[in-house]
């Protein structure tokens, strides 16, 4: 699906109207392809915290060029500031001193990262300063424009050596539609990670289950995980069996056809994964439905079906896979929530409840799982699909423009975020809910 407005504003007439009327002018976002470097340009480093000495070596391992300054005629593709050394409010001026001279020297579709210490691991003035970083990064994300993104990474000291996967994602075009996010690394007992030999195939040798895989976002998730080296087991309902089988044949994967709400579905899935693959390394709960109606007009069937598919089934399947030992050591469980579960949406009390429940699912499991297993979720905003193409024009335009990037995302943006969470190198990333919404203006 294409964004017709974005195509229009790139024409001579469109550019004239944007200039004279102050209309939104979305930048064409860069997205990653397998033959491209992670970062096509220079990363400028700042700050003097505990990570300042190791960041250049970390980026070098990823094939990313960095420096602590910028030549007079040069431009930067990314800025990374180590704010872990800020311990009192007077030190916050270091953010202004580093960023202000460089903001006009950033290339299109740039990346800005601020690295801090989780406030809950500090006290007194340092806790105040570290919490202040959230307001700084969220506001800067709404200022940068030109396809740029801004993130805050809270890194526990015990996880200082586990940043590779997260830096590779947030500094690259893989994170094109993710901005204004606060990610905790090393929280909830996850402080170590596996070394990844080949960053173009971080899932080599892994088995990934993707529910709702036959079309749309689910199909794109399957493609990206396959690209990253995983053997994909796609799952969908009998009505979608033909599309599912065609896609899995394309990806040299496997398929399971069943209704995830069936009483025996968790056991059947566990049996298939154990018998055919010896277990599973990545579980992506993508399957979901909508049955919209204002609550005054909501019937029990609409309510129950949405809760059953979107929330109860993932909970039951995950419990069975964990209890039966089918999830391998170092496994990754990823749920698909929604901005609706954070900000709410008219006519979607059932859907929003189910997607907020997915966030509760992460919060419930993140401290329970062991053996190096992590649990995270993504929360998509307005993603351009066949389903959103059917939304009335005015509603669709508001949904696409009401974010810092003034455009909708693509299914691949959700898939890339899931691939980062699924990576063998993301073992220190646990208990996060990451919005893929272009920093939507609704919700926190």
Radius of gyration: 22 Å
Strand line-up across the major sheet: 9-8-7-10-11-12-13
Tally of discrete structural domains: 2
Number-wise, the strands total 13
Catalogue the unreliable spans.
Answer: none
Task: Provide the CATH superfamily of the largest domain.
Answer: NAD(P)-binding Rossmann-like Domain
As a percent range, the share of helical residues equals 25-40%
The first-level CATH class of the largest domain is given as Alpha Beta
Under CATH, the topology of the largest domain can be stated as Rossmann fold
Summarize the structure in words.
The protein has 444 residues and is an alpha/beta fold. The chain folds into two domains: 31-185, Rossmann fold; 207-436, Rossmann fold. It is built from 15 helices and 13 strands. It has a seven-stranded parallel beta sheet with strand order 9-8-7-10-11-12-13, with helices on both faces. A six-stranded parallel beta sheet has the order 2-1-3-4-5-6, with helices on both faces. The radius of gyration is 22 Å and the shape is globular.
Summarize this structure briefly.
The protein is of the alpha/beta class and 444 residues long. It is 36% helix and 18% strand. It is built from 15 helices and 13 strands.
Highlighted features:
Rossmann fold, 2 domains, six-stranded parallel beta sheet, 13 strands, 18% strand, globular
What secondary-structure arrangement, pairings included, does this model have?
Elements: H1 4-9, H2 12-21, E1 43-46, H3 55-61, E2 66-67, E3 76-82, H4 93-99, E4 106-116, H5 124-141, E5 149-155, H6 164-170, E6 181-185, E7 207-211, H7 216-227, E8 231-236, H8 241-250, E9 254-257, H9 265-277, E10 280-285, H10 300-323, E11 327-336, H11 340-343, H12 349-365, E12 374-380, H13 386-389, H14 393-401, H15 411-422, E13 433-436
Parallel strand pairs: 1-2, 1-3, 3-4, 4-5, 5-6, 7-8, 7-10, 8-9, 10-11, 11-12, 12-13
Helix pairs in contact: 7-15, 9-10, 10-12
